[in-house]
UniProtKB/TrEMBL annotation:
<keyword id="KW-0410">Iron transport</keyword>
<keyword id="KW-0812">Transmembrane</keyword>
<dbReference type="InterPro" id="IPR012910">
    <property type="entry name" value="Plug_dom"/>
</dbReference>
<dbReference type="GO" id="GO:0009279">
    <property type="term" value="C:cell outer membrane"/>
</dbReference>
<feature type="domain" description="TonB-dependent receptor plug">
    <location>
        <begin position="52"/>
        <end position="163"/>
    </location>
</feature>
<keyword id="KW-0813">Transport</keyword>
<dbReference type="InterPro" id="IPR000531">
    <property type="entry name" value="Beta-barrel_TonB"/>
</dbReference>
<keyword id="KW-0998">Cell outer membrane</keyword>
<feature type="domain" description="TonB-dependent receptor-like beta-barrel">
    <location>
        <begin position="275"/>
        <end position="740"/>
    </location>
</feature>
<keyword id="KW-0732">Signal</keyword>
<dbReference type="Pfam" id="PF07715">
    <property type="entry name" value="Plug"/>
</dbReference>
<keyword id="KW-0408">Iron</keyword>
<protein>
    <submittedName>
        <fullName>Outer membrane receptor proteins, mostly Fe transport</fullName>
    </submittedName>
</protein>
<feature type="signal peptide">
    <location>
        <begin position="1"/>
        <end position="28"/>
    </location>
</feature>
<keyword id="KW-0472">Membrane</keyword>
<comment type="similarity">
    <text>Belongs to the TonB-dependent receptor family.</text>
</comment>
<keyword id="KW-0406">Ion transport</keyword>
Length: 786
């Protein structure tokens, strides 16, 4: 541990140990519970408040509703929230890249996802107070909060376009309770039946201590058929039935190759020695084992045969695995005038995958470089790891006076690793037989890449609210960052000794930046608020560490990238009457020095570059109502997000990447959401609840690019779900249907021009693919609570 880390960890433990002597806080209402059935209480402002009283656009979904809707994953959950777009890749590599887009703030291609990128996402994600994108299973959640617009003053440098917070349920003192859930499901295209099982236990141990444990197992049998996979020998090389020098190959079909096996566990311990003090220690663990992509190939294979249904044209299987662990300690103490919170967390998130690269080799002309070697099978083995220690201290005033404040300090020590080892399987065996020159080729490995990065982020932040009158508030916020980054990168092409020249590069950067926020709100009724906000967003810069000398030299302009910033202007009104709440706002975002995750043009280093300017403007509208047993919600978002300046590469070639006026990728002009449910009281402690919901988004673009290889239009789509729950006392049975009309829901594409077939070069597969949503699914779930 560094001295700074030791100091912060010691401070955290000291704050925790200080707590026992403090007086008691009195909370009127737990976060996540409802005030009148429609106003969820959240902690987005670092203090408890109804969503209707927060002076910017925020949505919250309670954990009970997530369970009741049988929500499968983050993509489905976020589609239910107005104005949020997400690239749906399925479970494979689900934790590599955060693909959430809010208010159109995104320039990265929807086809990213197989490897870890350097630039942080424009949308930050938190698990409780830990800034972590983990794609954990949605189990035993108190609620999910979605904060639109930059949240940098309270949530750090990655909160450029917004923040998503996953709030876990805490242990409950003095009450033994639990829940057991099991379910089965059948997905169109699959020959198997999926199942999942969950157990939740809350165990009090005395009056001041409680433990809450969650365990979950998911198994889905897969639906995508890999129909032209090479048969491999014991050495992992494609078999050669007519001899090594002959062009013949053997293929097999793998049914339902994209199976998913997930284990998830969580244990949390709460100690509350007095009403003034509480400490919560939480440990999360998840393991993913996925057999392949839930992505389908359209078009023809190398023999002219069309792919049909849920078929993928890869010539090899593409599994992925992932493990993520996180530990967090949160301590709260009531100081009478304010609440002091210490949040300490550590996480370790790692994974690996195999990707089919043969189509890329074919379309890029690389196979010709390898003498059109028969039975080409280019495998990219990629891995990533993200380890971090995070410490935050906050002091939040209790209210009641003319001024309220939040002040705090933040520290993060993050270590990132990514690698790629590429192989042209069987090439050396063929080369040796064809040429008799074994020393000319060292192995099948034709690319070696390693990247080690460290980021240290220190910040001071605060917000001050002046209650000018009983109904008018003015809030100002600031966050000051100072960051350090260090990047060590290695690259080599070891396949040919004559080309091999292991090259290392290193680069260090540092920067500091202040962010500001201003807000004016008028509470014109107990449930009515008019507000205006100006807020800045900031995303940290860093270094790419490309070599500038030697065989693999790149232009020095690629060495580093700087932070990008935006200014968000927003006016809105929110309120409620009776059982109805509403929210309407308009926003305008000015974004400059945009960061784009890409690769260098010569040797393919993964880098981030700056360039161009963009704007995003639009409106967001939501209503949520309840009348008796009937509940409904509607949402509409219009977003116009586009470049406002040409986007060029930073090197002297000054290649045009995107044009002024180009639409930002993944951003739909129109998004509509709707849901409704009705509960019937059948008597005898029995009820029946019927639910339905729908989502529509208009067309999007796949990438920022001047090339049709990448920048293609993705058509709009809609998804409709329905369920019925019969509950009697603690027992419930739910029948559900997902994607009733079986929409493909394409949110990303690898085009044929980029990764298609090429029989002239010996490649008879097809690596192009569409990223589709989960096809029509029927399921049955049962649970019992005690």
């Amino acid at each position: 541990m560094t001295n700074t880390t030791r100091l912060l960890a010691t401070t955290s433990l000291a704050c925790s140990g200080l707590l026992a002597a403090m007086p008691a806080p009195a909370f009127a209402q737990e976060a996540g519970t409802a005030n009148d059935g429609t106003d969820i209480v959240v902690t987005a402002t670092r203090r408890e408040a109804r969503t209707i009283d927060i002076p910017y656009n925020i949505s919250a979904v309670g954990g009970d509703r997530i369970d009741a809707n049988q929500t499968r994953d983050q993509a489905e959950l976020l589609r239910s929230i107005p104005g949020v777009a997400v690239v749906d890749r399925g479970r494979r590599n689900a934790g590599v890249i955060n693909t959430v887009t809010i208010r159109g703030v995104n320039v990265d291609s929807a086809a990213l996802g197989d490897y870890a990128v350097s630039g942080v996402s424009p949308v930050s994600t938190y698990v409780n107070d830990t800034p972590l994108f983990a794609a954990y299973l949605l189990k035993d959640l108190d609620r999910v909060e979605v904060l639109r617009g930059p949240q940098g003053t309270l949530y750090g440098s990655g909160a450029l376009g917004g923040t998503v917070r996953y709030i876990l349920k805490k242990p409950v003192l003095g009450r033994f309770e639990g829940r057991v859930t099991g379910g089965i499901s059948s997905v169109k295209g699959s020959d198997g039946i999926g199942y999942e099982a969950d157990v939740v236990l809350n165990v009090p141990l005395g009056e001041t201590f409680a433990i809450r444990a969650v365990g979950s197992r998911q198994h889905y049998p897969g639906l995508t058929d890999y129909v032209n996979v090479y048969k491999l020998g014991a050495d992992g090389i494609p078999t050669a039935p007519a001899g090594v020098l002959a062009p013949d190959a053997e293929y097999r079909s793998v049914k339902d190759a994209d199976f998913v096996h997930v284990w998830y566990g969580r244990i949390a311990a709460l100690w509350q020695p007095s009403d003034a003090v509480d400490l919560t220690l939480t440990y999360n663990h998840q393991e993913d084992n996925v057999g392949g992509r839930r992505q389908i190939t359209r078009g023809l294979d190398g023999y002219g045969k069309p792919y049909e249904g849920y078929q993928n044209g890869s010539v090899q299987l593409e599994p992925s695995t992932r493990n993520v662990d996180s530990i967090a300690l949160e301590a709260n103490v009531d100081l009478g005038f304010a609440t002091l919170t210490s949040s300490s967390s550590w996480y370790d998130h790692e994974g690996d995958s195999v990707s089919e690269n043969t189509g890329f080799y074919a379309k890029a002309g690389f196979l010709a470089f390898y003498y059109n070697y028969p039975r080409p099978m280019a495998s990219a083995l990629r891995s990533y790891r993200d380890k971090s220690f995070v410490q935050e201290l906050r002091l939040v005033s209790k209210g009641g006076g003319p001024l309220d404040y939040v002040i705090g300090a933040y520290y993060q020590d993050q270590k990132l690793f990514s690698s790629q080892d590429s192989y042209l399987r069987g090439f050396k065996r063929w080369w040796d037989a064809a040429t008799g020159l074994p020393d000319a080729v060292a192995s099948d490995q034709d690319f070696f890449y390693r990247r080690h990065e460290t980021f240290k982020d220190r910040a001071l932040f605060g917000e001050l609210t002046w209650h000018a009158t009983d109904t008018i508030d003015l809030t100002g916020g600031v966050r000051y960052f100072w960051n350090k980054a260090h990047n060590d990168t290695s690259i080599d092409i070891p396949i040919f000794p004559s080309l091999s020249q292991p090259t290392d590069a290193t680069f260090r950067t540092s920067e500091d930046k202040a962010l500001f926020k201003g807000n004016l709100s008028w509470k014109f009724a107990d449930r009515g608020l008019l507000y205006a906000t100006v807020s800045q967003g900031y995303r940290r810069g860093g270094s790419n560490a490309v070599p500038t000398i030697g065989r693999y030299a790149e232009d020095p302009s690629w060495q580093q990238y700087k932070s990008d910033t935006l200014v968000n202007y927003e006016v809105g009104v929110k309120g409620g009457f009776g059982g109805l709440t509403y929210n309407l706002d308009a926003f305008y975002i000015d974004w400059k020095d945009i960061q784009l995750n890409t690769a260098t043009p010569v040797w393919g280093f993964y880098v981030v570059q700056n360039g161009g300017k963009a704007k995003s403007q639009g409106i967001e509208a939501q209503i949520d109502g309840r009348s008796g047993g009937f509940h409904y919600a509607l949402g509409y978002t219009y977003v116009d997000a586009k470049l406002t300046r040409d986007f060029f590469s930073p090197d002297p070639s000054h290649v045009l990447i995107g044009r002024n006026g180009d639409r930002l990728p993944g951003s739909a002009h129109h998004i509509l959401t709707g849901s409704a449910d009705y509960s019937f009281d059948l008597g005898g402690d029995t009820s029946l609840t019927l639910r339905g919901d729908g989502f529509y988004q208009s067309s999007t673009r796949n990438a920022i690019s001047t090339s049709p290889k990448f920048n293609v239009r993705l058509p709009g789509f809609s998804i409709w779900n329905a369920s019925a729950t019969l509950r009697k006392g603690p027992y419930a049975l739910t029948l559900f249907a997902k994607n009733l009309f079986n929409a493909a829901g394409v949110t990303g594409r690898f085009t044929e021009a980029y990764m298609g077939t090429s029989p002239a070069q010996g490649y008879y597969g097809n690596a192009s693919k569409d990223l589709i949503t989960l096809p029509r699914t029927f399921g049955l779930s049962a649970d019992v609570r005690f």
